[in-house]
């Protein structure tokens, strides 16, 4: 789920950056540092929406290095996978154990055990696709699928999830043929 | 003779009576031999004997007697059958020895008293033996019985000894006997043999004690004698009979034993002397006397080693395949044939249905390299594929109807096949029993069939094999539950802090945290706070009412069982039919495979296992040198570490199993140091991320795990087979990611990764040359100006400003300013497109008519000829490596944003600023100029700039080709055109390289136009015309008349030709 939240981040600024553009530098560094990062509790920082300049407090000098530490408040657009959340994702890769799908930066693995019964043995190595027994459903790289998050693994700076398409209204929603965003 | 043989011990003993220590020692050692191969009970008895001897060594007759008994014990203990009959023989011999001893007079005289007692003792022994003989149950006497007998006998002896002791040594303690006998310890004579017998077995179980039992030189030797197969036991019996008979005759054989061990066609005779053996086997029918050989002392234990029998294959047992695609697969024995030599097995087929569609050559390769996945045979599927060879047929030798397809029989989806036991299949050993997954996949058929195969398998409910698998599965899961955690009823792998789910009772489904574990009850703190449990914070359950709860998606560690210490993510939790516990499917972290584990064996953990991938010094992903195989330096990367072997993927991308002995060291460090070049000439190293540009893995992105020469072992997280490793040539890859941007400025602006390759040649040490190397070296160039103008040569060296060109036509290297050379080909020389271009260029000056059709030659005009100098897409270059994008990529490249002239405009401007030749030409098209000036502008840019322009040229060239197609064929010199918009008629005077043209209007004024601004003037009669197409291309003449679509042309020598009117253009008659 995407949501907006105000977070704070500490930026260590070297003295070379001190000057008139200090605030701008802070904002730039903040974006560089946090955008794309996965925060364990909040999910991926998709975008830093706003950095209220009046919220940038005076920094504190670190005695050892001479750098200054600023605590910056910012509003960010976050993507956090919630367990049981239903998401639309784009399949990126299929392998004999299942397929990987992406929702923005979030990688979700759907195991063959989490596919409908009629797809359990449906991996086609030639086409690199998962095909249902009746050949109706073809999930290949580029397809759009609707899936439900079953589990989440948080690693350092990265979040991966396990999903399922074995439920009502889940599964293929776009065969990837049509152009445009899924 | 045998007497003689026996004597030494006895006599020696008697002679050395005075210094008893030494003689005792000898005696003891001499007697060790027999007991060593007898059962423990006997050993202890013998010990007792020895001790006794210590005490009353003066008692010579009795001693002798005992000696005999020891023989008895030794031969009897080891081979009870023989013993029974040998007994009387020894008795006789004992008497005989007595007689012998009588000769040793001095001795006797000394111990007159004992003489009587000896007689008495002998009498007792004899009685006992007789009793034993009468009992007549020696044949089936167990070891225990013998032990008891011996014990009794020795107790009796003890008594005897005791008495003598009382006489001679009122207070006696037995001294220790030396190191060879662990049991020999100070012992009061009152200690009964029974006590000792009880202790002895324990003492002999440890390794050191065992070692002391190994035969030494002091023990009798073995002689091996060949005989007919199957006669061994009979012959041993014969020998024994002979032994007895000879002894009866007062002429005992000097052998101590004969054994029919497990080796076929051989018996072993034990004796201290070779002649004794010779005598023993003399005259025994069936023994080949001349084959007699001494068994080396170190091999003697081997003779007696018991080899467990090879397990035969039985019906309904699990076996494993050992060959081919099926290697390692589980199979069920349906029937055993030819007395166990062959069997009919049932397994899941590995059919490759695509084979039939392939040409034989490819099919052969595919059959060798690709292992088809396990899949149940489905006749409907085959029928739908239109395979004709499918039919129903009875399996030979079994009363079942099967589907017969391509020489194989399939029953209910399983493959039935006759296999040779041993070479094709092996029984599942204890160490490698069928795993849960294997059984599940074997059984899975069952549930599927209900839905799918109803129409086909009517009647039969379930395949037998499936049933067997199911039952074993139950067993196995029970077993796993038990072995996993002591007893399944105890705690089911629960630990305090675990999340558990209630599976029984009113609160079924409730989850909570386990807070205490007390024998058979557990206390749980429910997770859901909103459940009103009447104020209760904790709920108590029986341990059987809860199970460990492992959610899907949890990261877990396997705590027990076959997959202990693996970690991974749970992808599914399912309850299988007839099983009490849940099974979780875990996707492992490292190897990316799925394993089925019971939830009780799992624990939630954030740990990521890396261990357990090590075997004899090698680890997963090691680059190793393989021995054997074709090439001497075959290398590979370990992709699986098994219990005793590895799976290695070699530099050709083929996986095979090797044993640790076959590996000849790691090459990881070499790999780390190695540098290769990608298709663009970028340096790539281990750890870089690359995109695969061609080949079967095209389009994949992966990290270089290892590299060996030009082969990259790439690792992709998302691949499951071969632990994510696959092999690609370095030249098929393109470096991607941030390193590329920092390294090559030419890569900015989203250049298509499939740009023109640079020189294929080994351009010398890349690192050493630094940035100097810009891809020009090795290229064929033409000198454009100066003394060597027009010469073609190969660039051998470059500097920032100059290039050294080795001329093709003169044996000479010349130094030319960089701007004055232009690349016209690769290291193999000018490309065909180039030569065409040259031709056309030359002909341009003479006659425009000689030009080959422009649309077929990318660079027909001089400038374009040079501009598109790198291999042109229509030049028919055979080596695909030159064009990583390949023909199919051309479209993609064009769509890549390259078509936008604006995007390139900026770049071209920068070149323009460098003062190029064509700078004065309006470049509304934007494509021609940069391409033409690419090399000319080189000096002012960084050397790498050249590679940029080189790499960016390919797309440019395609664009040119497109432009040429747009340019009408008639757009050439001397052609009359009509300007669009003004209807003014003009003659093209000159064609500029950028395809604009200088035209002369009727009023003699000139202007520059583009082809798009001009229209052809349709020729009318009497006009001078040029043929621009068809067979007569290039012909000039005057148009006589037009007849429909045909035109009649009068050419120079007054001949007439009929030409398609559409091929004609009006040209100016002058010049």
From TrEMBL, chain A:
Domain S1 motif: 81-157
Cellular-component GO terms for this entry: P-body; RNA polymerase II, core complex
GO MF annotation terms: single-stranded DNA binding; single-stranded RNA binding; translation initiation factor binding
Entry-linked SUPFAM superfamilies: N-terminal, heterodimerisation domain of RBP7 (RpoE), Nucleic acid-binding proteins
Family listed: Belongs to the eukaryotic RPB7/RPC8 RNA polymerase subunit family.
Classification via PANTHER family: DNA-DIRECTED RNA POLYMERASE II SUBUNIT RPB7 (PTHR12709:SF4), DNA-DIRECTED RNA POLYMERASE II, III (PTHR12709)
Protein name (Swiss-Prot/TrEMBL): DNA-directed RNA polymerase II subunit RPB7
Native species: Fistulifera solaris (Oleaginous diatom)
Automatic annotation (TrEMBL), chain B:
Residue ranges of domain KOW in the record: 312-339, 493-520, 549-576, 617-644, 683-710, 774-801, 1018-1045
Record keywords, A-Z: Activator, Chloroplast, Elongation factor, Nucleus, Phosphoprotein, Plastid, Protein biosynthesis, Repeat, Repressor, Transcription, Transcription regulation
Annotated PROSITE patterns: RIBOSOMAL_L24
Keyword Transcription regulation: yes
Coiled coil: none
Annotated GO CC locations: chloroplast; DSIF complex; ribosome
InterPro entries, alphabetized: KOW, KOW_Spt5_1, KOW_Spt5_2, KOW_Spt5_3, KOW_Spt5_4, KOW_Spt5_5, KOW_Spt5_7, KOWx_Spt5
Pfam families recorded: KOW1_SPT5 (PF23042), KOW2_Spt5 (PF23284), KOW4_SPT5 (PF23291), KOW5_SPT5 (PF23290), KOW7_SPT5 (PF23287), KOWx_SPT5 (PF23037), Spt5-NGN (PF03439)
Gene Ontology terms describing biological process: regulation of DNA-templated transcription elongation; regulation of transcription by RNA polymerase II; transcription elongation by RNA polymerase II
Record-level Gene Ontology MF annotations: mRNA binding; structural constituent of ribosome; translation elongation factor activity
Skewed-composition ranges (Acidic residues): 12-30, 44-65, 92-105, 452-463
Top-level taxon of origin: Eukaryota
Stretches with biased composition (Polar residues): 934-952
Compartments reported by the entry: Nucleus; Plastid, Chloroplast
Family named by the database record: Belongs to the SPT5 family.
Protein name: Transcription elongation factor SPT5
Taxonomic source organism: Fistulifera solaris (Oleaginous diatom)
């Amino acid at each position: 789920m995407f949501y907006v939240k105000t977070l704070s981040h500490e930026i260590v600024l070297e003295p070379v950056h001190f000057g008139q553009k200090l605030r701008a530098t802070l904002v730039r560094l903040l974006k560089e540092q946090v955008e794309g990062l996965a925060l364990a509790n909040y999910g991926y920082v998709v975008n830093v929406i706003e950095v209220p300049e009046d919220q940038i407090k005076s920094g504190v000098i670190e005695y050892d290095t001479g750098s200054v530490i600023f605590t910056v408040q910012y509003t960010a657009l976050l993507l956090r996978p919630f367990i049981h959340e239903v998401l639309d994702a784009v399949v990126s890769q299929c392998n004999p154990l299942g397929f990987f799908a992406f929702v923005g930066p979030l990688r979700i693995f759907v195991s063959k055990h989490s596919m409908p019964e009629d797809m359990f043995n449906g991996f086609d190595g030639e086409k690199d696709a998962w095909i249902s027994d009746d050949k109706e459903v073809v999930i290949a790289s580029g397809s759009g699928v609707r899936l439900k998050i079953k589990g989440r693994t948080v690693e350092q700076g990265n979040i991966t999830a396990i999903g399922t398409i074995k439920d009502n209204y889940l599964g293929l929603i776009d065969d990837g043929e049509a152009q445009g965003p899924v | 003779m045998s007497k003689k043989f026996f004597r030494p011990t006895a006599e020696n003993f008697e002679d050395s009576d005075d210094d008893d220590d030494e003689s005792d020692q000898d005696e003891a050692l001499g007697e060790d031999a027999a007991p060593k191969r007898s059962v423990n009970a006997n050993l202890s008895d013998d010990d007792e004997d020895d001790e006794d001897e210590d005490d009353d060594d003066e008692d010579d007759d009795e001693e002798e007697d005992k000696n005999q008994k020891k023989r008895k014990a030794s031969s009897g203990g080891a081979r009870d059958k023989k013993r029974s009959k040998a007994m009387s023989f020894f008795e006789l011999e004992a008497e005989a020895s007595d007689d012998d001893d009588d000769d040793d007079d001095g001795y006797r005289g000394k111990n007159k008293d004992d003489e009587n007692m000896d007689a008495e003792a002998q009498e007792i022994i004899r009685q006992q033996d007789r009793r034993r003989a009468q009992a007549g149950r020696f044949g089936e006497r167990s070891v225990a019985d013998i032990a008891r007998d011996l014990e009794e006998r020795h107790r009796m002896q003890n008594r005897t000894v005791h008495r003598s002791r009382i006489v001679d040594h009122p207070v006696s303690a037995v001294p220790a006997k030396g190191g060879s006998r662990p049991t020999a310890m100070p012992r009061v004579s009152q200690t009964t043999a029974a006590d000792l017998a009880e202790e002895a077995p324990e003492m002999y179980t440890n390794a050191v004690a065992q070692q002391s039992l190994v035969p030494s030189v002091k023990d009798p030797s073995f002689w091996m004698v060949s005989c007919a197969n199957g006669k061994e036991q009979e012959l041993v019996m014969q020998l024994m009979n002979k032994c007895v008979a000879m002894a009866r005759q007062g002429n005992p054989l000097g052998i101590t034993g004969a054994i029919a061990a497990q080796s076929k066609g051989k018996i072993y005779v034990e004796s201290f002397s070779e002649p004794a053996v010779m005598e023993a086997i003399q005259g025994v029918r069936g023994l080949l006397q001349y084959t007699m050989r001494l068994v080396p002392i170190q091999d003697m234990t081997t003779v007696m080693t018991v080899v467990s029998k090879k397990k035969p294959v039985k019906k309904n047992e699990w076996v494993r395949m050992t060959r081919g695609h099926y290697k390692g697969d589980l199979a069920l024995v349906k029937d055993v044939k030819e007395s166990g030599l062959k069997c009919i097995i049932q397994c899941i087929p590995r059919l490759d249905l695509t084979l039939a569609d392939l040409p034989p050559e490819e099919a052969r390769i595919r059959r060798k390299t690709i292992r088809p996945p396990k899949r149940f045979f489905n006749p409907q599927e085959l029928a739908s594929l239109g395979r004709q060879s499918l039919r129903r047929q009875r399996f030979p030798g079994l009363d079942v109807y099967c589907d017969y397809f391509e020489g194989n029989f399939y029953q209910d989806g399983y493959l039935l096949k006759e296999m040779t036991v041993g070479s094709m299949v092996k029984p599942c050993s204890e160490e490698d029993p069928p795993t849960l997954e294997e059984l599940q996949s074997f059984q899975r058929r069952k549930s599927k069939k209900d839905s799918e195969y109803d129409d086909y398998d009517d009647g039969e409910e379930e395949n037998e094999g499936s049933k067997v698998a199911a039952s074993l599965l139950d067993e196995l899961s029970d077993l796993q539950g038990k072995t996993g955690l002591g007893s399944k009823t105890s705690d089911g792998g629960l630990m305090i802090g675990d999340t558990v789910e209630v599976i029984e009772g009113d609160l079924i489904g409730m989850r909570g945290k386990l807070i205490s574990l007390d024998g058979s009850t557990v206390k749980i703190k429910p997770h859901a706070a909103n459940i009103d449990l009447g104020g209760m914070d904790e709920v108590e359950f029986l341990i059987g009412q809860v199970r460990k709860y492992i959610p899907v998606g949890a990261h877990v560690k396997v705590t027990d069982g076959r997959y202990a210490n693996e970690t991974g993510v749970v992808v599914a939790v399912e309850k299988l039919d007839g099983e009490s516990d849940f099974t979780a499917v875990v996707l492992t972290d490292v190897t990316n495979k799925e394993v089925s584990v019971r939830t009780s064996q799992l624990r939630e953990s954030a740990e990521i296992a890396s261990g357990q991938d090590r075997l004899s010094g090698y680890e997963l992903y090691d680059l190793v040198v393989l021995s054997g195989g074709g090439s001497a330096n075959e290398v590979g990367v370990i992709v699986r570490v098994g219990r005793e072997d590895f799976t290695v993927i070699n530099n050709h991308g083929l996986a095979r199993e090797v044993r640790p002995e076959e590996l000849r060291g790691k090459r990881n460090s070499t790999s780390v140091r190695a540098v290769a070049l990608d298709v663009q000439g970028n340096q790539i190293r281990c750890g870089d991320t690359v995109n695969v540009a061609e080949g079967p893995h095209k389009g994949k992105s992966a990290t270089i795990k290892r590299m060996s020469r030009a082969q990259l072992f790439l690792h992709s997280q998302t691949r499951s087979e071969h632990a994510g490793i696959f092999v690609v040539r370095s030249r098929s890859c393109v470096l991607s990611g941030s390193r590329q941007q920092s390294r090559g400025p030419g890569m900015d602006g989203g250049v298509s990764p499939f740009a023109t390759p640079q020189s294929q040649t080994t351009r010398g040490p890349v690192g050493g040359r630094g940035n100097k190397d810009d891809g020009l070296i090795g290229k064929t160039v033409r000198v454009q100006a100066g003394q060597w103008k027009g010469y073609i040569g190969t660039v051998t060296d470059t500097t920032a400003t100059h290039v050294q060109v080795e001329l093709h036509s003169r044996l000479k290297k010349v130094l030319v300013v960089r701007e004055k050379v232009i690349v016209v080909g690769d290291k193999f020389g000018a490309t065909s497109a180039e030569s065409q271009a040259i031709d056309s260029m030359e002909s341009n000056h003479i006659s425009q008519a000689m030009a080959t059709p422009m649309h077929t030659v990318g660079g027909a005009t001089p400038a374009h000829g040079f501009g598109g100098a790198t291999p042109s897409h229509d030049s028919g270059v055979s080596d695909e490596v030159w064009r990583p994008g390949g023909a199919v990529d051309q479209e993609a490249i064009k769509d890549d944003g390259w078509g936008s002239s604006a995007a390139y405009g900026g770049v071209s401007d920068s070149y323009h600023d460098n003062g190029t030749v064509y700078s004065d030409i309006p470049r509304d098209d934007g494509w021609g100029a940069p391409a033409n000036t690419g090399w000319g502008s080189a000096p002012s840019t960084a050397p790498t700039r050249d590679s940029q322009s080189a790499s960016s040229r390919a797309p440019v060239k395609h664009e040119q080709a497109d432009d040429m197609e747009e340019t009408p064929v008639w757009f050439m010199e001397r052609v009359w055109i009509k300007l669009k918009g003004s209807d003014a008629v003009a003659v093209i005077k000159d064609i500029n390289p950028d395809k604009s043209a200088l035209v002369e209007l009727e009023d003699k004024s000139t202007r520059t136009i583009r082809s798009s601004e001009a229209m052809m003037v349709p020729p009318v009669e009497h006009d001078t015309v040029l043929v621009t197409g068809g067979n007569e291309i290039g012909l000039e003449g005057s148009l006589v008349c037009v007849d429909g679509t045909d035109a009649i042309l009068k050419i120079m020598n007054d001949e007439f030709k009929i030409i398609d009117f559409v091929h004609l253009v009006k040209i100016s008659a002058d010049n």
